[in-house]
Automatic annotation (TrEMBL):
Residues 6-331 form the Ubiquitin-like modifier-activating enzyme Atg7 N-terminal domain. It holds the Pfam family ATG7_N. One of its GO terms (cellular component) is phagophore assembly site. Residues 348-593 form the THIF-type NAD/FAD binding fold domain. GO terms for biological process: autophagosome assembly; autophagy of mitochondrion; cellular response to nitrogen starvation; piecemeal microautophagy of the nucleus; protein modification by small protein conjugation; protein transport. This is Ubiquitin-like modifier-activating enzyme ATG7. It is found in: Cytoplasm; Preautophagosomal structure. The keyword Protein transport applies. Gene3D superfamilies: NAD(P)-binding Rossmann-like Domain (3.40.50.720), Ubiquitin-like modifier-activating enzyme ATG7 C-terminal domain (3.40.140.100), Ubiquitin-like modifier-activating enzyme ATG7 N-terminal domain (3.40.140.70). One of its GO terms (molecular function) is Atg8 activating enzyme activity. It comes from Lentinula detonsa. E1-like activating enzyme involved in the 2 ubiquitin-like systems required for cytoplasm to vacuole transport (Cvt) and autophagy. Activates ATG12 for its conjugation with ATG5 and ATG8 for its conjugation with phosphatidylethanolamine. Both systems are needed for the ATG8 association to Cvt vesicles and autophagosomes membranes. Autophagy is essential for maintenance of amino acid levels and protein synthesis under nitrogen starvation.
Amino acid sequence: MAQTIVQFTPLPSLTHPSFWHKLTELKLDVLKLSDAEVDITATYRVGRLIEDRESGPGTFVGVGGSLGVEEESFGLGHSSPAIGSAVAKGVVKNYNTIEEFKAADKSKLFNEAADKIWKSILETRSTALLNTFLLITYADLKKYRYYYWFAFPAFTSSPAWHIDAHPGWIGAGTPESKLSDQQLRVIYDQLHTSKQPFPYFLIRSSSSSAINVAAIEDYSPNTDTNETTTIGFIDPSAQPQNPGWPLRNLLAYFRALYPQSTSKLRIICWRDAEVPRGEEGWKSRVGTIFLGPDGVSADGSNVTTRPNAVGWEKNVQGKLGPRMADLAPMMDPVRLANQAVDLNLKLMRWRILPELDLEKISATKCLLLGAGTLGCYVARCLMGWGVRTISFVDSSRVSFSNPVRQPLFKFEDCLNGGRPKAECAAERLKEVWPGINATGYTLSIPMPGHPIPASPPSVLEQTKKDVAKLEELIETHDVVYLLMDSRESRWLPTVIARAKDKLVMNAALGFDSFLVMRHGARPEQHSVVQRDELGGSRKHLGCYYCNDIVAPADSLTDRTLDQMCTVTRPGLASMAASTAVELMMNVLQHPQGIRAPAPRPSVTNPLDNQFDEHGEGTSVLGLIPHQLRGYLAQFRNLHIVGAAYDKCTGCSETVLEAYESQGFDMMLNAFNDPKYLERLTGLDKLYEDGEKALEDVDWVEEEGGDDF
């Protein structure tokens, strides 16, 4: 009788795009620079026969099952596979560079995987690792290209397994298979209802034709013979005369543990994911295979020595080599942009700043009061840090002098009277990064020293609406940036933000100098003021108005052209804006956040503008100064700490309590009466006391002598 060597169909791989997305997250957030192996799982299904309509009725094309990995491969999503599916355990090893990927010792990696399978056979007598696989990868996260190579270690047999050429592998359910339709239905039901998935199994039959499905581990050479027991496995092959790759390690399992009784085995290649309907027959195949061309068992004395293994997958050219998945063309451009925005930030945590809290930064909502030169640069810098929510407030329109200095505007924005700055700036941010939540509000901020006329009544009503909208915006944001042109326009948001306990970042420009500061937070109830060596408050930091002895007043009336324009050196705004944003990031990374203290002067150089870089006024990003005054002409910055002033018109408790108790009426008094804030805080009394003190001074004049 003619015999033929059993040929096994290789197991192809299938990588779902979600697998690469998950690997990207794992690489950026967990693995970073590590190339440690990560446990994953995969599934493969039974092979299928699909009718070929072009070739006529009765003609079928085999479609083999692939070993697929997806997002759930990194978790426990494959713990209960569907009928006709099997779970395979494996590892993925991701390399940091393409050079490391190419130079990897693939023989060593493959042999280690094969040794792991062989060891589990001999020591645990378990089939759990028979279908183990190996996956090596390199992820090019800039171009979203993923290089990968699968290996499915399978043991070779010497001598080879053979099968009679006739009948060969025959269809289950035929008389020659010795398995009836009813018996196959019983097998299907037991596989379907089993609590334990069976990638490999035993089919035991008794003299009464009863069928029972059992685990391979239950095999007994004394009772399980070719007449009573059939060895089964979930077969991903669809070829009529070629069983699938998983059978190879199952045969090696039997030869290693039961060499004297397994030179001849009856096999069923299970390929049925559902019960046949109508005239459709069972797809599973049955055959009896044996070792050696003569069916004579080989010497079993050395079967515990690990046999050779094969199993590296071939690429699409049919050669042994890696494959490449290019996800860029199929990815949503917005999702690509979102991942690219975070890429640089997450790389910071790989080596430099592993403690950096990026989630806190991305969740921070920023309100930019002013969409001019400072506002445009601040917004771009915030986007670079991954801030997702940015809102603009401005009342002006884009003019022809703006686009060259304000990078969010273009020439066409100046036409027809100019577009509203706030809305235009928000649209430009979305053009740069579609994933950002950017909104613009055209809104006038009332100011002290700029009276609100009682008539027409619509002006007062509009002012009330503007104030209410400003309060709402400050309430719904975490950080408020004061980026306006005038000093008095910063007063109202300073009061509201202080009362609502928001972080206020202030940036102001001179010709060749700038001020960047963070306003101090409102003291918590029952807090104790800590004093430094000079008697000033160490933790209760001041605001923009704490150094003033007069209330903010009208600075916009009666100005010449050079006073109406912000005349500064062109590079100054970007320096001040980026400094303000970086200072905000330092504050967010401090455990006390908005109440972070200012850094203490260095003990060794207290007068040389040097600070303790490891003291309480620092975060993982460095110092958290209160104020920074930059001098471009000298290319230097000066750190300044200013204590909160109990008579401040912007942040004192007197002003805040009046705002909280009187609301808009208090604001209206400040807008209409230039002296109201001075009377409220006691600055007028301070001024009077100063004048009286000067009057009481006895000036001593020398008598006689020449007057030179």
